[in-house]
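JOB MANIFEST
job_type = single_chain_structure
chain_count = 1
residues = 335
[input]
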Amino acid sequence: MKRSIKFWVLIIAVLICLFGEQVLAKPWVVFQGKQGPGKGKHIVFLVGDEEYRSEDSMPQLAKILAVHHGFKCTVLFAINKETGEIDPETLDNIPGLKALEKADLMVMFLRFRELPDEQMKRIIDYTNSGKPIVGLRTSTHAFNYVKHKDSPYAKYSFRNKEFDGGYGRQVFGETWINHYGHHQRESTRGLIAKDMENHPIVKGIDDIWGESDVYGITTLSGDSKPLIMGQVLSGMNPKDKPNPDKKLVPVAWTKTYTGEKGKTSRVFTTTMGHSFDLNSEGFRRLLVNACYWGMEMEDKIPARSKVDFVGKYEPNKIGMGGHKKGLKPSDHKLP
Protein backbone atom coordinates (compact mmCIF):
# COMPACT_ATOMS: atom_id res chain seq x y z
CA MET A 1 0.00 0.00 0.00
CA LYS A 2 2.74 2.46 0.99
CA ARG A 3 4.63 1.70 -2.21
CA SER A 4 1.45 2.33 -4.23
CA ILE A 5 0.88 5.72 -2.59
CA LYS A 6 4.50 6.71 -3.13
CA PHE A 7 4.21 5.64 -6.77
CA TRP A 8 1.20 7.88 -7.43
CA VAL A 9 2.73 10.79 -5.55
CA LEU A 10 5.78 10.42 -7.76
CA ILE A 11 3.63 10.29 -10.91
CA ILE A 12 1.76 13.49 -9.91
CA ALA A 13 5.04 15.26 -9.13
CA VAL A 14 6.44 14.26 -12.52
CA LEU A 15 3.30 15.52 -14.30
CA ILE A 16 3.54 18.87 -12.54
CA CYS A 17 7.21 19.16 -13.47
CA LEU A 18 6.53 18.20 -17.08
CA PHE A 19 3.49 20.35 -17.68
CA GLY A 20 3.89 22.96 -14.95
CA GLU A 21 1.34 25.70 -15.29
CA GLN A 22 -0.60 23.77 -17.92
CA VAL A 23 -1.72 21.47 -15.10
CA LEU A 24 -2.25 24.21 -12.50
CA ALA A 25 -3.22 27.12 -14.76
CA LYS A 26 -6.26 29.20 -13.88
CA PRO A 27 -8.21 31.35 -16.36
CA TRP A 28 -6.91 34.56 -14.81
CA VAL A 29 -3.58 36.03 -13.77
CA VAL A 30 -2.45 37.44 -10.42
CA PHE A 31 0.41 39.89 -9.95
CA GLN A 32 1.53 39.87 -6.33
CA GLY A 33 2.31 43.33 -5.05
CA LYS A 34 5.90 44.28 -4.39
CA GLN A 35 6.85 46.95 -1.87
CA GLY A 36 4.92 50.21 -1.95
CA PRO A 37 1.95 52.14 -0.55
CA GLY A 38 -0.46 49.62 -2.07
CA LYS A 39 0.86 46.61 -0.16
CA GLY A 40 -2.09 44.77 1.39
CA LYS A 41 -4.62 46.20 -1.08
CA HIS A 42 -6.20 44.12 -3.86
CA ILE A 43 -7.30 45.47 -7.25
CA VAL A 44 -9.42 43.29 -9.55
CA PHE A 45 -9.53 44.06 -13.28
CA LEU A 46 -12.48 43.04 -15.48
CA VAL A 47 -11.27 42.89 -19.07
CA GLY A 48 -13.34 42.20 -22.16
CA ASP A 49 -13.76 44.47 -25.18
CA GLU A 50 -13.50 43.45 -28.81
CA GLU A 51 -12.01 46.63 -30.22
CA TYR A 52 -9.56 48.60 -28.09
CA ARG A 53 -7.15 45.84 -27.00
CA SER A 54 -7.86 46.07 -23.29
CA GLU A 55 -6.55 42.50 -23.09
CA ASP A 56 -3.14 44.04 -23.86
CA SER A 57 -3.34 47.32 -21.94
CA MET A 58 -4.94 46.25 -18.66
CA PRO A 59 -2.40 43.52 -17.79
CA GLN A 60 0.33 46.13 -18.30
CA LEU A 61 -1.46 48.61 -16.04
CA ALA A 62 -1.87 45.87 -13.45
CA LYS A 63 1.86 45.12 -13.61
CA ILE A 64 2.68 48.81 -13.11
CA LEU A 65 0.44 48.95 -10.03
CA ALA A 66 1.88 45.73 -8.61
CA VAL A 67 5.58 46.21 -9.30
CA HIS A 68 5.92 49.96 -8.75
CA HIS A 69 3.20 50.56 -6.14
CA GLY A 70 2.73 47.33 -4.22
CA PHE A 71 -0.90 46.51 -5.06
CA LYS A 72 -1.93 42.90 -5.56
CA CYS A 73 -3.66 42.83 -8.95
CA THR A 74 -5.91 40.12 -10.33
CA VAL A 75 -6.81 40.36 -14.02
CA LEU A 76 -9.95 38.56 -15.20
CA PHE A 77 -10.47 38.10 -18.94
CA ALA A 78 -13.16 37.12 -21.41
CA ILE A 79 -12.28 33.46 -21.85
CA ASN A 80 -13.22 31.08 -24.65
CA LYS A 81 -15.01 28.22 -22.91
CA GLU A 82 -13.62 25.56 -25.26
CA THR A 83 -9.99 26.59 -25.57
CA GLY A 84 -9.37 28.46 -22.31
CA GLU A 85 -7.79 31.25 -24.36
CA ILE A 86 -8.28 34.98 -23.96
CA ASP A 87 -11.05 35.82 -26.41
CA PRO A 88 -12.63 39.30 -26.32
CA GLU A 89 -15.32 38.07 -28.73
CA THR A 90 -16.65 35.69 -26.07
CA LEU A 91 -19.31 37.96 -24.61
CA ASP A 92 -20.72 35.65 -21.96
CA ASN A 93 -17.83 34.38 -19.85
CA ILE A 94 -15.49 36.09 -17.39
CA PRO A 95 -14.37 33.42 -14.91
CA GLY A 96 -12.93 34.25 -11.51
CA LEU A 97 -15.36 36.98 -10.47
CA LYS A 98 -15.45 35.56 -6.96
CA ALA A 99 -12.25 37.58 -6.49
CA LEU A 100 -14.43 40.69 -6.22
CA GLU A 101 -15.58 39.55 -2.78
CA LYS A 102 -12.20 40.54 -1.33
CA ALA A 103 -11.31 43.34 -3.74
CA ASP A 104 -10.50 46.86 -2.57
CA LEU A 105 -11.03 48.30 -6.06
CA MET A 106 -12.66 47.14 -9.30
CA VAL A 107 -11.20 48.39 -12.59
CA MET A 108 -13.54 47.77 -15.51
CA PHE A 109 -12.82 47.77 -19.23
CA LEU A 110 -15.78 45.94 -20.76
CA ARG A 111 -17.89 46.32 -23.87
CA PHE A 112 -21.34 44.88 -24.67
CA ARG A 113 -21.04 41.88 -22.33
CA GLU A 114 -24.03 39.59 -21.76
CA LEU A 115 -22.87 37.58 -18.77
CA PRO A 116 -24.81 34.72 -17.17
CA ASP A 117 -26.70 35.71 -14.03
CA GLU A 118 -24.28 34.01 -11.63
CA GLN A 119 -21.35 36.01 -13.02
CA MET A 120 -23.23 39.29 -13.31
CA LYS A 121 -24.46 38.96 -9.72
CA ARG A 122 -20.89 39.17 -8.46
CA ILE A 123 -20.29 42.41 -10.38
CA ILE A 124 -23.51 43.98 -9.13
CA ASP A 125 -22.88 42.81 -5.56
CA TYR A 126 -19.53 44.59 -5.71
CA THR A 127 -21.13 47.67 -7.31
CA ASN A 128 -23.59 47.86 -4.41
CA SER A 129 -20.88 47.35 -1.78
CA GLY A 130 -19.75 50.97 -1.55
CA LYS A 131 -16.25 50.08 -2.72
CA PRO A 132 -14.56 52.15 -5.45
CA ILE A 133 -14.82 51.63 -9.20
CA VAL A 134 -12.63 52.79 -12.10
CA GLY A 135 -14.03 52.53 -15.63
CA LEU A 136 -12.33 52.97 -19.01
CA ARG A 137 -13.56 53.77 -22.52
CA THR A 138 -16.28 51.28 -23.51
CA SER A 139 -17.31 50.63 -19.93
CA THR A 140 -19.90 53.34 -20.50
CA HIS A 141 -21.60 50.60 -22.54
CA ALA A 142 -20.28 47.58 -20.67
CA PHE A 143 -23.44 45.46 -20.93
CA ASN A 144 -25.96 44.68 -23.64
CA TYR A 145 -28.56 41.97 -23.03
CA VAL A 146 -29.89 40.75 -26.36
CA LYS A 147 -30.45 37.00 -25.96
CA HIS A 148 -31.58 37.12 -22.34
CA LYS A 149 -33.81 40.17 -22.04
CA ASP A 150 -35.69 38.45 -19.22
CA SER A 151 -32.57 38.40 -17.05
CA PRO A 152 -32.86 40.44 -13.84
CA TYR A 153 -29.63 42.11 -14.98
CA ALA A 154 -30.92 43.19 -18.39
CA LYS A 155 -31.68 46.63 -16.95
CA TYR A 156 -27.93 47.31 -16.93
CA SER A 157 -27.88 47.30 -20.75
CA PHE A 158 -26.41 50.47 -22.18
CA ARG A 159 -29.62 52.01 -23.52
CA ASN A 160 -32.09 50.76 -20.95
CA LYS A 161 -34.89 53.26 -20.37
CA GLU A 162 -36.15 51.86 -17.07
CA PHE A 163 -32.70 52.17 -15.46
CA ASP A 164 -31.81 55.29 -17.40
CA GLY A 165 -28.77 54.59 -19.56
CA GLY A 166 -28.02 51.30 -17.86
CA TYR A 167 -24.87 50.61 -15.86
CA GLY A 168 -22.86 53.15 -17.84
CA ARG A 169 -24.94 56.22 -17.11
CA GLN A 170 -26.01 55.21 -13.61
CA VAL A 171 -22.61 54.15 -12.30
CA PHE A 172 -20.06 55.85 -14.56
CA GLY A 173 -21.97 59.00 -15.48
CA GLU A 174 -22.79 58.42 -19.16
CA THR A 175 -23.74 55.72 -21.62
CA TRP A 176 -22.61 55.33 -25.23
CA ILE A 177 -23.63 58.32 -27.36
CA ASN A 178 -21.33 58.60 -30.40
CA HIS A 179 -17.84 59.39 -31.65
CA TYR A 180 -17.46 63.14 -31.29
CA GLY A 181 -13.94 63.17 -32.65
CA HIS A 182 -13.64 61.38 -35.99
CA HIS A 183 -12.78 57.77 -35.20
CA GLN A 184 -9.16 56.96 -36.10
CA ARG A 185 -8.71 60.33 -37.84
CA GLU A 186 -8.80 62.73 -34.89
CA SER A 187 -6.85 62.06 -31.70
CA THR A 188 -7.21 63.54 -28.21
CA ARG A 189 -5.23 66.02 -26.17
CA GLY A 190 -6.20 65.83 -22.50
CA LEU A 191 -6.32 69.15 -20.66
CA ILE A 192 -6.85 69.54 -16.93
CA ALA A 193 -10.29 71.06 -16.33
CA LYS A 194 -10.59 74.54 -14.89
CA ASP A 195 -10.15 74.70 -11.10
CA MET A 196 -9.08 71.03 -10.96
CA GLU A 197 -5.34 71.67 -11.13
CA ASN A 198 -4.89 70.68 -7.49
CA HIS A 199 -6.97 67.53 -7.58
CA PRO A 200 -4.89 64.55 -6.38
CA ILE A 201 -5.65 62.52 -9.50
CA VAL A 202 -3.81 65.00 -11.74
CA LYS A 203 -0.78 65.20 -9.45
CA GLY A 204 2.47 65.07 -11.43
CA ILE A 205 0.74 65.08 -14.82
CA ASP A 206 2.34 67.28 -17.48
CA ASP A 207 0.71 66.02 -20.65
CA ILE A 208 -1.94 63.59 -21.85
CA TRP A 209 -2.31 62.56 -25.47
CA GLY A 210 -3.79 59.49 -27.04
CA GLU A 211 -5.10 58.02 -30.28
CA SER A 212 -8.57 57.67 -28.76
CA ASP A 213 -11.11 59.91 -30.38
CA VAL A 214 -13.21 62.00 -28.01
CA TYR A 215 -16.52 60.32 -27.14
CA GLY A 216 -19.68 62.38 -27.33
CA ILE A 217 -21.73 62.91 -24.19
CA THR A 218 -25.11 64.45 -23.37
CA THR A 219 -24.83 65.66 -19.79
CA LEU A 220 -22.93 63.80 -17.12
CA SER A 221 -25.22 62.27 -14.52
CA GLY A 222 -25.33 62.73 -10.77
CA ASP A 223 -22.53 64.62 -9.06
CA SER A 224 -20.02 64.05 -11.87
CA LYS A 225 -17.15 66.54 -11.90
CA PRO A 226 -15.07 66.88 -15.09
CA LEU A 227 -11.38 66.37 -14.41
CA ILE A 228 -9.82 66.13 -17.87
CA MET A 229 -11.23 67.87 -20.94
CA GLY A 230 -10.70 66.31 -24.33
CA GLN A 231 -9.43 68.59 -27.08
CA VAL A 232 -10.09 67.13 -30.52
CA LEU A 233 -6.94 67.26 -32.64
CA SER A 234 -7.16 67.42 -36.43
CA GLY A 235 -5.02 64.30 -36.90
CA MET A 236 -3.40 61.29 -35.27
CA ASN A 237 -0.18 63.03 -34.23
CA PRO A 238 0.34 64.79 -30.87
CA LYS A 239 1.65 67.84 -32.74
CA ASP A 240 -1.50 68.19 -34.84
CA LYS A 241 -3.53 71.36 -34.29
CA PRO A 242 -6.89 71.35 -32.49
CA ASN A 243 -10.01 71.11 -34.62
CA PRO A 244 -11.42 74.67 -34.26
CA ASP A 245 -14.98 73.49 -34.90
CA LYS A 246 -15.12 71.14 -31.92
CA LYS A 247 -15.42 72.30 -28.33
CA LEU A 248 -13.78 70.69 -25.32
CA VAL A 249 -15.64 67.65 -24.00
CA PRO A 250 -15.00 65.83 -20.69
CA VAL A 251 -12.92 62.66 -21.18
CA ALA A 252 -12.31 61.94 -17.48
CA TRP A 253 -14.37 62.74 -14.41
CA THR A 254 -15.12 61.71 -10.84
CA LYS A 255 -18.49 60.98 -9.28
CA THR A 256 -20.16 58.89 -6.62
CA TYR A 257 -22.63 56.04 -6.95
CA THR A 258 -25.04 54.99 -4.24
CA GLY A 259 -26.08 51.39 -4.72
CA GLU A 260 -29.19 49.45 -3.80
CA LYS A 261 -27.95 48.92 -0.25
CA GLY A 262 -27.47 52.64 0.33
CA LYS A 263 -23.67 52.44 0.29
CA THR A 264 -21.77 55.05 -1.72
CA SER A 265 -18.76 54.36 -3.95
CA ARG A 266 -16.11 56.65 -5.33
CA VAL A 267 -16.07 56.38 -9.13
CA PHE A 268 -13.54 57.50 -11.72
CA THR A 269 -14.37 57.31 -15.42
CA THR A 270 -12.33 58.01 -18.54
CA THR A 271 -13.52 57.59 -22.11
CA MET A 272 -9.94 57.27 -23.27
CA GLY A 273 -8.49 53.77 -23.53
CA HIS A 274 -7.19 53.04 -27.05
CA SER A 275 -4.39 50.47 -26.72
CA PHE A 276 -1.80 53.08 -27.74
CA ASP A 277 -3.08 55.62 -25.20
CA LEU A 278 -1.03 53.78 -22.60
CA ASN A 279 2.10 54.99 -24.39
CA SER A 280 1.31 58.40 -22.89
CA GLU A 281 3.09 58.70 -19.55
CA GLY A 282 0.51 61.26 -18.49
CA PHE A 283 -2.36 58.89 -19.21
CA ARG A 284 -0.70 56.06 -17.30
CA ARG A 285 -0.17 58.39 -14.34
CA LEU A 286 -3.81 59.50 -14.52
CA LEU A 287 -4.96 55.88 -14.19
CA VAL A 288 -2.53 55.03 -11.38
CA ASN A 289 -3.47 58.16 -9.42
CA ALA A 290 -7.17 57.40 -9.96
CA CYS A 291 -6.72 53.98 -8.35
CA TYR A 292 -5.12 55.58 -5.28
CA TRP A 293 -7.90 58.17 -5.09
CA GLY A 294 -10.64 55.57 -5.45
CA MET A 295 -9.34 53.70 -2.40
CA GLU A 296 -9.10 56.98 -0.44
CA MET A 297 -5.32 56.83 -0.55
CA GLU A 298 -4.84 60.26 -2.12
CA ASP A 299 -2.49 61.27 0.68
CA LYS A 300 -0.14 58.51 -0.51
CA ILE A 301 -0.04 59.51 -4.16
CA PRO A 302 3.63 60.22 -4.97
CA ALA A 303 4.62 63.64 -6.25
CA ARG A 304 5.20 61.91 -9.57
CA SER A 305 3.87 58.36 -9.60
CA LYS A 306 6.25 55.83 -11.16
CA VAL A 307 4.59 54.50 -14.29
CA ASP A 308 7.48 52.93 -16.21
CA PHE A 309 6.42 49.95 -18.30
CA VAL A 310 7.05 46.56 -16.74
CA GLY A 311 8.63 44.48 -19.48
CA LYS A 312 7.67 45.14 -23.08
CA TYR A 313 4.39 46.78 -24.01
CA GLU A 314 3.56 45.81 -27.58
CA PRO A 315 -0.22 45.94 -27.99
CA ASN A 316 -1.97 44.99 -31.19
CA LYS A 317 -3.67 47.70 -33.20
CA ILE A 318 -7.30 48.31 -32.36
CA GLY A 319 -10.08 46.77 -34.42
CA MET A 320 -12.62 43.99 -34.25
CA GLY A 321 -11.05 40.55 -34.29
CA GLY A 322 -7.55 41.98 -33.98
CA HIS A 323 -6.61 40.45 -30.65
CA LYS A 324 -3.59 38.19 -30.25
CA LYS A 325 -4.72 34.63 -30.85
CA GLY A 326 -3.79 31.62 -28.77
CA LEU A 327 -2.89 33.48 -25.55
CA LYS A 328 -3.89 32.30 -22.12
CA PRO A 329 -3.87 34.42 -18.95
CA SER A 330 -0.69 32.72 -17.74
CA ASP A 331 1.13 34.14 -20.77
CA HIS A 332 0.96 37.53 -19.02
CA LYS A 333 2.74 36.36 -15.89
CA LEU A 334 5.67 38.33 -14.55
CA PRO A 335 9.12 36.86 -15.31
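[summary]
DSSP finds six helices and twelve strands in the chain.
The chain has one domain: 19-178+253-332.
exit_status = 0
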